[in-house]
Design brief:
- By secondary structure, the protein is of the alpha/beta class.
- It has one domain: Undecaprenyl pyrophosphate synthetase (3-Layer(aba) Sandwich).
- It is 43% helix and 15% strand.
- It is built from seven helices and six strands; from the N terminus they run βααβαβαβααββα.
- Strands 3-4-2-1-5-6 form a six-stranded parallel beta sheet, sandwiched between helices.
- Helix 1 packs across helix 2.
- The chain is globular, with a radius of gyration of 18 Å.
- It starts with 8 loop residues before the first strand and ends in a 10-residue tail after the last helix.
- Bound molecules: 3-methylbut-3-enyl trihydrogen diphosphate (IPE) (2 copies) and magnesium ion.
- Magnesium ion (MG) binds next to loops.
Length: 233
């Protein structure tokens, strides 16, 4: 597949696992399992296409409101995913990163995150960033707290200062935001970073999202005229 213009950074709100499971007449956990398989395919494809960064919204701070058994299952799935994917990350030259309040995740999950970051730190292909226990408002509040703790002079605070204190200062703004599950909302994802991001929403549930859907999103992206406040051509 060749595209006129490739987004450098794609961010994805992977939503609809529960509704997919209901539609299939299976349990929600099966929906999350199928969602993890979808993620594997999209990571592989983004690497192959030469996308620089893929940020996947996997668990929000608000998701702690869910029943304990579902949260426990998601944490188990996440740990298994990290272990299973590590050799594939190495084979495909993918660098692993995370954003979110990682220190609040179960210790066993944190250990696997640290291992994946360490193992892939010198990889130079796609950066796969998982948003885990992530909330955009918390991210901005956390950044402000760090700015104050560092005693930065009020007059020196500007957009770039704030950006430096976000969870991953290296992260460029996403060019394209894909949202599955049909909802027209950002659900507290990357509020600072998506000021000029192009949105693409599909009613498809995440487990049904395939590489063909990714191609469709990128094709539409390549036709958009990004103006960043400038005038039309
Ligand atoms: C997305 O699927 C996965 C997570 C938020 C962890 P959901 O579990 O939110 O599925 P729906 O939205 O209820 O269908
Ligand atoms: C967004 O999905 C969060 C993730 C994909 C991790 P939710 O299912 O939590 O979003 P809402 O509650 O429908 O906005
Ligand atoms: Mg949902």
């Amino acid at each position: 597949m060749l595209f006129d213009k490739l987004p450098q950074h794609i961010a994805v709100i992977m939503d609809g696992n529960g509704r997919w499971a209901k539609e299939q007449g299976v349990s929600r956990v099966k929906g999350h399992q199928a969602g993890a398989e979808s993620a594997e395919e999209i990571v592989r494809e983004c690497g192959r296409l030469g996308i620089k960064r893929l940020t996947l919204y996997a668990f929000s701070r608000e998701n702690w409101k869910r029943p304990r058994y579902e949260i426990n299952y998601l944490m188990k799935l996440l740990r298994q995913y990290l272990i299973r994917e590590r050799p594939k990350l190495m084979k495909n030259n993918i660098k692993f990163a995370v954003i979110g309040r990682i220190e609040e995740l179960p210790a066993k999950v944190q250990d696997e995150i640290t291992r994946s970051i360490k193992a892939t730190e010198h990889n130079t292909g796609l950066t796969l960033c998982l948003a885990l226990n992530y909330g955009a408002r918390t991210e901005i509040a956390d950044a402000l707290r760090k700015i104050c703790q560092n005693g930065i002079d009020v007059s020196a605070i500007n957009e770039e200062t704030l950006r430096k204190y976000l969870y991953d200062p290296e992260m460029p703004d996403p060019d394209l935001l894909i949202r599955t599950g049909g909802e027209m909302r950002v659900s507290n994802f990357l509020l600072w970073q998506i000021s000029y991001t192009e949105f693409w929403v599909t009613p498809k549930f995440w487990p049904d999202f395939s590489k063909e859907d990714l191609y469709e999103a990128i094709t539409e992206y390549s036709r958009r005229e990004r103006r960043f406040g400038g005038r039309t051509q």
